[in-house]
Amino acid sequence: MASFAPSPADVADIGVTGMAVMGSNLARNLARNGFKVAIHNRSVERTEKVIADHGSDGEFYPSESIDDFVASLQKPRVAIIMVKAGGPTDAVIDELAARMEPGDIIVDAGNALFTDTRRREEALRAKGLHFVGTGVSGGEEGALNGPSIMPGGTKESYDRLGPMFETIAANVDGAPCCTHVGADGAGHFVKMVHNGIEYADMQVISEAYDLMSKALGMSASEIGDVFAEWNTGDLESFLIEITADVLHQVDADTGKAFVDVILDQAAQKGTGAWTVQTALELGVPVTGIAEATFARSVSGSVPQREAARGVLPAKAEAPEIADRAAFIDDLQKALYAAKLVSYSQGFDEIAAGADHYGWDINLGDMARIWRGGCIIRARFLDRITEAYERNGDLALLLADEYFTREITECIPAWRRVVAYAATAGLPVPVFASTLSYYDSVRAERLPAALVQAQRDFFGAHTYRRVDADGTYHIEWTGDRSQTRQDG
Question: Is 198 a known active-site residue?
Fold first, then answer.
């Protein structure tokens, strides 16, 4: 094992500790863009491998010890942590904080829960250090070639980080896919919601695939052709593009379609669940994201699925599809509508989080920095930015004039797809839940009135009237008289 000589002191523009694939690719991206990059890993072999394989990418300063790593950074120092979330991140933060000085910056660029980021930021602020929770989207390729970057933290820290992050981020129409999101945990909050939208997007795409496969009997390759065609229109996006690629892939071992040899159990790392849990706490309905998260849970519920298989009847009669092309066109429109609802719900959650935690988040900027580098990049993100530029106080993205027109064109097809799936006994949780949300949010009156009456009956939770101010209660177990509770 080689031993690195201590790097020159106060020389590197920025440092990255954690040389797994994401960390090493981010370090290489920085070096390729002309920055002097200090690198470190607890297991020095990984640092050695980066230098051996990619040392020609730029100017690296490898360190074997955390002391040498910190010493090699220019002041005010910037150190990016790219290690496993949770305890390992806290351990590295503690090591860095013990060696840093007031004004230095520690960046967590992993998928941390935003409440952890808020806790860490508060603790380090008390020591005079800046802590920046930064969302990074784009996977391994994005980290290397240009991700979407969502930094939180103080504006002062962004003054130091911004020029570097904006340089290495993806760029669309001359604008970097990076901006200062907001204080403390805002960056990781926005990345969390981004991942939640990603869950919904992936699931509803898969539902469209499933309907073409089971309702039309199409092969994976034929369905891939449909997705490739869809990627030339309003549905153009990274996820539609890679779906076409995946469906065209042939398994080398069996010669079968690759998707047909994959076990139908989808894994998850927790960001979808975080998005749903946080939405519940904020009182924001993110039905598409929730159903997508639960769909992964159902796929992994092996004992329950085995118990149901062959026992629970479908009692379904699939209607005849007379016009295959028309059905595929309906699927395209339904997919577009469900995606629009999922994005709208995600932006509702960001707005609610900003209001609750006091973050000054520009919603149009979030759509702008998601146009490139990130997993949910899509053609219509430009339109989301334009919607919030037209009305910064827009209460519902779907109520914007552009999106109202777009979704109106999709409604008949959307209803036909959900109705067909229900009749045929095919699960479409995101298609169905987003349509139900759409009908709920546009309704003149909801059955919540009955729910509130029930709550008052068994728990004296009171109710409000449509024809008078104040809150009231019925003496249900007595004479059923109405009494005002706040007067």
Answer: yes
